[in-house]
Design goal:
With about 60 residues, this protein is mainly alpha-helical. The chain has one domain. About 80% of the residues lie in helices and about 0% in strands. It has three helices and no strands. The chain is globular, with a radius of gyration of 14 Å. The relative contact order is 0.06.
């Protein structure tokens, strides 16, 4: 994915989040994540990304 593609995808996601509102944004993000995971040929990279994301959020919560 090029930088332009990434920007377009990010912008579309931001717009969609704004349209569904804060009450349904978690659901939208979950639906997008599940659809993207289903496109992955192997679980390994998906599991690695989940773990890295979890660790990052825990570190931020701890003030690191």
């Amino acid at each position: 994915m090029t930088d332009t593609d990434l920007d377009q995808a990010y912008t579309a996601l931001c717009r969609a989040l704004g349209e569904v509102g804060p009450q349904r944004s978690e659901l939208l993000l979950s639906m997008v994540c599940l659809a993207l995971m289903a496109r992955s040929e192997e679980a390994g990279p998906v599991l690695e990304l989940i773990e890295r994301s979890r660790q990052r959020l825990q570190e931020e919560a701890a003030g690191r």
